[in-house]
Amino acid sequence: MRSYDKNEAQSTEEFGKSLDEIAREGALKMLKDALEAEVEDFLGRGRYQRSEDYSGYRNGFGKKRKVVVGSGTLELQAPRVRDALVPFESDVLHKYQRQSDEVKSLIPELYLHGLATGDFELAMRGLLGDGASLSAASVSRLKEKWEDEYNSWRRRDLSSHKYVYMWCDGIYPKAGLSDDKLALLVVLGVNKNGIKEPLAIFEGYRESKESWGNVLHDLKERGLTDPKLFIGDGALGLWAAIGEVYPHADWQRCWCHKMRNVISYFPKRLKAEAAFYLKEMYNAATEEKAISLINDFAGRYAREYPLAVECLKKDQDVLLTFFCYPREHWASIKTTNPIESVFSSVRLRTNAARRIKSPRSALFLIFQIILRAQKRWRSINAPEMIQKVIDGVKFKDGVEVKEVKQRKTKREMVAA
Q1: pLDDT digits (tens, 9 = 90+) for 84-107
Q2: In a domain, 120, yes or no
């Protein structure tokens, strides 16, 4: 019989481990290596090496602690440094940190999916190992922290930033026992670098002018001046508030909402046909072509479907505002899709979490989900064009209008 050597026995033992065990061991090794590399970089020398420039020295390890990461619960000791001119602080593992950011983001997700506060301890232990338990009291404290974070965020100063495009929408979390139509009013902006940022998440009542006015006045008081373009659906309260608070800003009516509204006036047999003509307008290369298509649509359907034509024509001007902005940005500013896509998953989760007792609780949870989702948002196309919009450069049909310098006459040159 063939005998196994020590290495083969060890290999067989490794294969006997579960996938989770292998993942945890690999994560632990990588984390230890990263911490050691940080210390070497901080001291400017490796372990057992000497250096002429004294910058402190290693002093063993800190107390054992359990850290919960996506692959499970890891037990480790962080390296310590003594007598350094500047205290050593790890960027990989922060002081007193017990959970990774990914695990923290899991908590509001589970909560919105319907996990009760008292169930977290068992659920976390089952997902991430025995060291990952989270008591009901810990979850309650975490929710209080979310409230504090939200309050700090909504009061932050905006005066040092420029925002050009502003998407506005209201979402209705199915939370609380009241029949009142409470909404969360949301404003998403694009900064001068083309990055999307949530700027406001407020409680409001039925998207009224007063509610939207409170949101916009708050933004203005915190330093948000002169946004160029607001994009929104047909909520009259929103447009009335914009006209009052930011009277110089342009308006862009969401094409997706408008197309759905227009198509709703047609019988089923004609909906696809109407949608085809509306999409032609939406994709028109010039404002002149879009107006021509709108007029053709009106001539075709005004007699039998006057309400559909009226629905389209009444917002014609604000549907075509995008032609005055860079063509590269049209895909983003024609509709409220940037904000719709952000909140589609939020809507699903809050609709499922019927046990949330108050919209206030839903507000803090949604805020946490948005903050985590923000890291995955892509910037707007051609972000370099944003500065031109800020500088007031004129665009016609999406193309920059170049100023033509007139040549001087001979008489003007002689006079000069």
Answers
A1: 656 767 665 666 565 555 555 556
A2: no
Which among 217, 278, 208 has a CA at the least distance from the CA of 244?
A: 217
Distance (Å) of CA 219 to CA 165, 226, 250, 340, 382: 14, 11, 17, 21, 26
Q: Which domain holds residue 228?
A: 163-390
For the record, the structure tokens of 403 come out as 């100023």
Same domain for 323 and 176:
yes
Rg for the chain, CA atoms, rounded: 29
| The most confident of 94-103, 164-173, 319-328, by mean pLDDT | 319-328
Pair 188, 167: CB distance under 8 Å: yes
Contact yes or no for 108/369 (Cβ under 8 A): yes
CB atoms within 10 A of CB 7: 8
Is the C-alpha dihedral spanning 200, 201, 202, 204 positive or negative?
A: positive
Q: Determine if the pTM surpasses 0.85.
A: no
pLDDT tens-digit map of 254-302: 999 999 999 999 999 999 999 999 999 999 999 999 999 999 999 999 9
Q: What are phi and psi of 241, to 5 degrees?
A: -70, -40
- CA separation for the pair 62, 77 (Å, rounded): 5
Upper half-sphere CA count for residue 278 (Cβ side, 13 Å): 26
Q: Which residues contact 33 (CB under 8 A, 6 or more apart)?
A: none
**Structural domain contains residue 337:** yes
In a domain, 135, yes or no: no
Question: Measured between alpha carbons, how far is 340 from 343 in angstroms, rounded to an integer?
Answer: 5
- CA-CA distance, 312 to 289, in Å (whole number)? 16
Query: How many distinct structural domains can be found in the chain?
Result: 2
Describe the crossing of helices 287-301 and 306-313 by its angle, rounded to 10 degrees.
Answer: 160
By the 10 Å C-beta count (0-12 exposed, 13-18 middle, 19+ buried), 236 is classed as exposed
Confidence bin at 376 (pLDDT 50/70/90): confident
> Does one domain contain both 295 and 198?
yes
Q: How far is CA 279 from the centre of its chain?
A: 28
The verdict on residue 403 lying in a domain is: no
Q: What is the distance between the alpha carbons of residues 221 and 20, in angstroms, rounded to a whole number?
A: 51
- Cα 126 to Cα 386: distance, rounded to the nearest angstrom: 48
**21: pLDDT strictly greater than 70:** no
